């Protein structure tokens, strides 16, 4: 009976470890390294255009002296492609992904306007 309990405990421990590993691996696909403050945009009442909203975000980033990153992930053929746009490009730093297989593409202003608005924004700064 003790062997059965020991085998059951080890099996449950291994199962929990595998689930945690898979969860953190998938979570790393969504976030950007070294970003401490995610900003989630969940709704848009379309009172302002995308262009106006992006101008306000850019102005806010300049006023606060921070870089704000808009990140979208595309999953094609089991590969992760990240499209990144930087608000306040003067404060931008190089993004080094956790996984070297990720392809990072930096978006231009025109490409940004073609993307969906409701996504996460990330702020890179020590104190905010």
Automatic annotation (TrEMBL):
Domain of life: Bacteria
Record's keyword terms, sorted: Membrane, Transmembrane, Transmembrane helix
Transmembrane stretches, start-end: 6-25
Protein name, as recorded: Membrane spanning protein
Organism: Staphylococcus schleiferi
């Amino acid at each position: 009976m003790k062997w059965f309990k020991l085998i059951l405990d080890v099996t449950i421990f291994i199962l929990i470890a595998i689930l945690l590993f898979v969860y953190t691996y998938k979570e790393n696909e969504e976030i950007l390294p070294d970003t401490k403050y995610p900003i989630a945009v969940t709704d848009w009442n379309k009172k302002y255009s995308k262009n106006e909203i992006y101008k306000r975000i850019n102005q806010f980033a300049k006023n606060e002296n921070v870089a704000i990153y808009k990140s979208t992930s595309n999953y094609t053929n089991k590969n992760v492609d990240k499209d990144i746009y930087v608000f306040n490009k003067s404060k931008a730093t190089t993004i080094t992904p956790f996984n070297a297989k990720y392809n990072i593409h930096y978006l231009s202003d025109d490409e940004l306007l073609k993307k969906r608005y409701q996504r996460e924004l990330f702020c890179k700064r020590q104190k905010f």
